[in-house]
Design goal:
Helix content: 25-40%
Shape: globular
Number of domains: 1
CATH topology: Ribosomal Protein S5, domain 2
Strand order of the largest sheet: 1-2-4-3
Strand content: 15-25%
Largest sheet: 4 strands, mixed
Oligomer: single chain
Number of helices: 4
Structural class: alpha+beta
Length: 150
Amino acid sequence: MVTEKRVNALPRHEIARGKNNISRLFARGSRLKGGSLLMISSPAVPGSGSSSPSIRVLFTVGKKLVPKAVHRNRIRRLMREAYRLEKQVLTAFSYTDAHDGGEALFIAFLYRGRRDVEPSLAGFRSEIRQMLRTLVSKKLTPSPDGNQGE
């Protein structure tokens, strides 16, 4: 059997980990609202163990919004799959080119949809694609002070 590199894979090292990074992400990250998702993005804490510059991602669904664990897990799986299929939008964007130092970019997707609406993979894909395109365009456009991005 010939193994080929999975282009759309979501390997374990791309999942956001670390209390400092996640706390900083929620405290200082820039927010982008979509229909049923909220995307928060922030660079990683310097020297926090993120050895290689990459993009780390986190998916979360609130317990108050979706009380049953079965439904929360289903929504998280749909969000992960949608991101996995749409993350090629970020391949044109090199975070190390936009920011010196080669830090990792942390992204969190928070589900904030309605309780009575069953989310779909197609809906998540289009929403995540639009959010990632907006993130790339914001990071690559120069700001008035001459720096790129925020």
